[in-house]
Amino acid sequence: MGLDLGKIKIKRFADGEIYVQLQESVRGCDVFLVQPTCPPANENIMELLVMIDACRRASAKNITAVIPYFGYARADRKTQGRESIAAKLVANLITEAGANRVLACDLHSGQSMGYFDIPVDHVYGQPVILDYLASKAISSDDLVVVSPDVGGVARARAFAKKLSDAPLAIVDKRRQGHNVAEVMNLIGDVKGRVAVMVDDMIDTAGQL
């Protein structure tokens, strides 16, 4: 955008509370707050909320929360009884804090966009990765796109189509618990090929 970063003061009190003060006027401005909610997720989400609130109270015209990594996105549904749908909760918090729009990258599932009562722009990192692979001059005949689980097949298939319909392989795994997965089978032929594994997020990287 050719703009300088805005000036903001952020500090922590002794008890861990977050303090935010804008160091310049944002009155009547379109503000873009760039804040991934990667680890420490809780800290970064709260910091984002306080920054949104500060901009709203400083009379910003529009506030767009740019969230490259949307924390709690995997908690987008209940898989067992008495669970929270935390993705919806975080969406509510961002909206109530005063954001007018959200821009997120490669959400865990598209349904998360529906949790917001404000517009959501969902962008993808796929073009950047495709450009990188093109720079390596790897023949599409030597590539195989791998989905790390059955749930990611649609994402991997769409990626494979961009690579001249490269073949697809699927990892069949079973989850033993949070952040614990056991590979059961590999469906597809990867021998002698350059495997490109496509996933929406890497947490522990255990399944990779």
Provide an overview of this structure.
It is a single chain. With 208 residues, this protein is of the alpha/beta class. It folds into two domains: 8-123, 3-Layer(aba) Sandwich (Rossmann fold), CATH 3.40.50.2020; 126-197, Rossmann fold, CATH 3.40.50.2020. 24% of the residues lie in helices and 27% in strands. It has four helices and ten strands. The protein has a four-stranded parallel beta sheet with strand order 3-4-5-6, covered by helices on one side. Strand 7 (143-147), helix 4 and strand 8 (168-177) form a beta-alpha-beta unit. Helix 1 (41-57) packs parallel to helix 2 (86-97). The longest helix is centred in the first third of the chain and has 17 residues, at 41-57. The two termini are 35 Å apart. 19% of the residues are buried. The model has no long low-confidence stretch (mean pLDDT 91).
Task: State the gist of this model.
It catalyses: D-ribose 5-phosphate + ATP = 5-phospho-alpha-D-ribose 1-diphosphate + AMP + H(+). This protein is of the alpha/beta class and 208 residues long.
Features:
208 residues; alpha/beta; Rossmann fold; four-stranded parallel sheet; four-stranded mixed sheet; globular
Could you say what the CATH topology of the largest domain is called?
Answer: Rossmann fold
Task: Please write the CATH class name of the largest domain.
Answer: Alpha Beta
Strand order of the largest sheet: 3-4-5-6
Based on CA atoms alone, the radius of gyration comes out at 20 Å
Q: Please, how many helices? A: 4
Q: Could you outline the blueprint of secondary structure elements for this entry?
A:
Layout: E1 8-12, E2 18-22, E3 30-34, H1 41-57, E4 62-67, H2 86-97, E5 101-105, E6 120-123, H3 126-135, E7 143-147, H4 153-162, E8 168-177, E9 180-187, E10 194-197
Parallel strand pairs: 3-4, 4-5, 5-6, 7-8, 7-10
Antiparallel strand pairs: 1-2, 8-9
